[in-house]
Design brief:
Elements (H helix, E strand, L loop, with lengths): L1 E8 L2 E6 L12 H13 L4 E5 L15
Length: 66
């Protein structure tokens, strides 16, 4: 998720990027928590939501069985 401050530092807004993580991103409880955070930022008068997405990858090391 990324957001931009309404307040400026000189001529510039402050860009904020947030990565949310959990051990099991497939857990059904994860999406509603992330949505609450997105809604919190989007509803703030102090910030403008730039983008939000829910992506993750899974990798597992593999070794030969023989």
């Amino acid at each position: 998720m990324s957001a931009r401050s309404v307040d400026r530092v000189g001529d510039y807004t402050v860009e904020i990027a947030v990565a949310l993580a959990v051990d099991n991103p497939d857990d059904p409880a994860m999406a509603p928590i992330v949505q609450k955070f997105v809604d919190l930022i989007a509803g703030s008068a102090d910030f403008r939501l730039s983008s939000a997405s829910r992506t993750y990858s899974y990798s597992e090391s593999m070794t030969p069985t023989t």
